[in-house]
Specification:
mainly alpha; 6 strands; 4-stranded mixed β-sheet; DUF7224 domain-containing protein; elongated; two-stranded antiparallel ribbon; membrane
C-alpha cells in the first residue's frame, strides 16, 4: 500500500492532531509542574505523564483498524501476504500517532525545563514505543473480535484503566509494568533505576509477542495457549524485576558528575546549576557567617543526594535565587532524623523548626524569605534568639542540636530569663 494511501485511509490521521491538541491544552500544566531546570532526564520523565493518554489513543486506533479489516473480509479471502504482513502497515500509523503525542509532551517539558540542545533518555523512549505498540496490537485484536460499537469503546476504556490506574494503587510494582512510575523521575540529584525500564519493556514486549502470535496464526488453539504462556511469563518476569521498587524508581545520581571547586568549603554543584559562580560566592559568604557565629561547617558542601563524611547537603535547586542559598545550607546542617525516632521513641520534632530558622537567619537569609516556609512561632523564636549575645546563641543552638541528634534528650528552646 502506498504511504499516501495508507495515511489518507487511516484513522490515525484524524486521531493524531486530536492527541497533540489534548497534550498541549489539557496536560500542559502537569507536564511542566515538576521539571528540573536544565535536565533532559527530568523533562523525559515528566513527559511520561502523557503516556497513558497516548497509549489509550493507540488502542482506540488499533481497534478501529481491526474492525475495518474484519468488516472488509480481508482475511476471509486468499491473500498473497500473511496476516502479519497485512496488519503491520495498517497499524504503523497508530503507533506513529502515539509517538507524535509523546514527542509533543517531551517538547513541552523540555521547553519548561530550559533544557537546551539534547535528546530524551533512550531507555524511556524504548519503553514508550513498546507500550504504545502493545496497546495498538491489543486494541487491534479487540477490533478483529468485536464490532466497532463494542471494540473501540472497550479498547479506549480498557487501555486507560490498564495504563493510568496502576499509578494510584498501593501495589507499587504494578505501575512499573506499564511504565507508570517513570513520570516521577528525576530530581537533580537522582537518576532512573534501570529496573523500572526493564520491567516496563519486558511486559510490553511480552504483550507484543503474544499479539503477534495470535495475528500470525489466526488465533488457533495452539496460538492462544502460546500467547497466554508468553504473557504470563512476561508479566511474571517483569514483576520479579519491579517487586521491590518504590513508587518513584530512582536512585542517587553518580557523584562523579558533580563539579567541585574551592576549599573549606569545597563546593560541589551539578552541571545544571544556572549560575555556578554566583552560587559558590553566596555559599562561601553564608559559610563564613555561620563559622563566625561558632557553627561547625563541614569541609564540603555538596548537592549530592547522600553526602559522605565531612560533607553536608547543599539543598538548593539549579535555578534557585541566590537569596535561597543560605537556607539551603542551613537545611543541610540539620541532623537527619535518627533511627530511634522511626521506631517510635520520643523525639523532639518541635526543635527542628526554630533551629533551622536560626541557622538560616545566621547564614544570611532575610526573615521575609522564610515567611510561609517556617512556622511563624518558630521564626519569631529564632529572631528572638538572634538578639542575644553570641555566646548565648551558640549555647542555645548546640543544646538543641544535641537534642535533635538522638532520642530522649529534651530540647531547651526557652531562652534564659523565660523568653520562648
Amino acid at each position: 500500500m502506498l504511504l499516501r494511501t495508507l495515511l489518507r485511509s487511516s484513522s490515525a490521521t484524524v486521531a493524531a492532531p486530536l492527541l497533540i491538541g489534548f497534550v498541549l491544552l489539557a496536560l500542559g500544566d502537569d507536564l511542566t509542574a515538576w521539571v528540573t531546570t536544565g535536565s533532559w532526564l527530568s523533562a523525559t520523565g515528566s513527559a511520561g505523564f502523557a503516556l497513558p493518554f497516548a497509549a489509550t489513543a493507540c488502542a482506540g486506533i488499533g481497534a478501529w483498524e481491526g474492525t475495518r479489516l474484519q468488516r472488509g473480509g480481508v482475511f476471509d479471502q486468499a491473500p498473497v501476504r500473511s496476516a502479519l504482513a497485512v496488519t503491520v502497515p495498517v497499524l504503523l500509523p497508530a503507533v506513529a500517532a502515539g509517538l507524535l503525542g509523546m514527542t509533543t509532551a517531551v517538547l513541552v517539558s523540555a521547553n519548561a525545563a530550559n533544557a537546551g540542545a539534547g535528546l530524551p533518555h533512550p531507555g524511556f523512549v524504548a519503553v514508550w514505543m513498546l507500550v504504545l505498540t502493545a496497546n495498538t496490537l491489543v486494541g487491534y485484536l479487540l477490533g478483529r473480535r468485536f464490532g466497532p460499537l463494542i471494540a473501540v469503546p472497550l479498547a479506549l476504556i480498557g487501555a486507560f484503566i490498564a495504563n493510568a490506574y496502576p499509578s494510584s494503587w498501593h501495589v507499587l510494582w504494578l505501575r512499573h509494568l506499564v511504565g507508570g512510575g517513570l513520570s516521577g523521575c528525576c530530581a537533580v540529584d537522582q537518576t532512573v533505576d534501570a529496573r523500572a525500564l526493564w520491567a516496563g519493556a519486558v511486559f510490553a514486549a511480552a504483550l507484543c509477542l503474544a499479539a503477534v502470535l495470535l495475528i500470525h496464526y489466526r488465533a488457533g488453539a495452539v496460538a492462544v495457549a502460546a500467547a497466554v504462556l508468553v504473557t504470563a511469563a512476561g508479566g511474571g518476569g517483569a514483576a520479579l524485576v519491579a517487586h521491590d521498587l518504590d513508587a518513584d524508581p530512582v536512585r542517587a545520581r553518580p557523584e562523579a558528575e558533580l563539579v567541585c571547586r574551592g576549599d573549606r568549603p569545597r563546593i560541589c554543584l551539578w552541571p545544571e546549576v544556572t549560575d555556578p559562580q554566583a552560587v559558590r560566592d553566596r555559599t562561601r559568604q553564608a559559610a563564613t557567617r555561620l563559622r563566625d557565629a561558632g557553627v561547625v561547617v563541614p569541609a564540603t558542601l555538596t548537592m549530592a543526594a547522600h553526602p559522605g563524611e565531612r560533607a553536608a547537603k547543599l539543598a538548593i535547586l539549579p535555578d534557585d535565587d541566590p537569596a535561597e542559598i543560605p537556607a539551603g545550607i542551613a537545611s543541610g546542617l540539620l541532623p537527619p532524623i535518627p533511627e530511634c525516632a522511626e521506631k517510635g521513641r520520643p523525639y523532639p520534632f518541635e526543635a527542628s523548626g526554630p533551629v533551622g530558622a536560626w541557622l538560616s537567619l545566621t547564614a544570611g537569609t532575610r526573615p521575609h524569605h522564610l515567611t510561609g516556609r517556617v512556622d511563624p512561632r518558630d521564626l519569631a523564636l529564632a529572631q528572638q534568639v538572634r538578639t542575644q549575645p553570641r555566646p548565648v546563641q551558640l549555647r542555645w543552638y548546640e543544646t538543641n542540636l544535641r537534642a535533635l541528634e538522638t532520642c530522649g534528650t529534651p530540647p531547651q528552646l526557652r531562652l534564659p530569663g523565660g523568653g520562648s
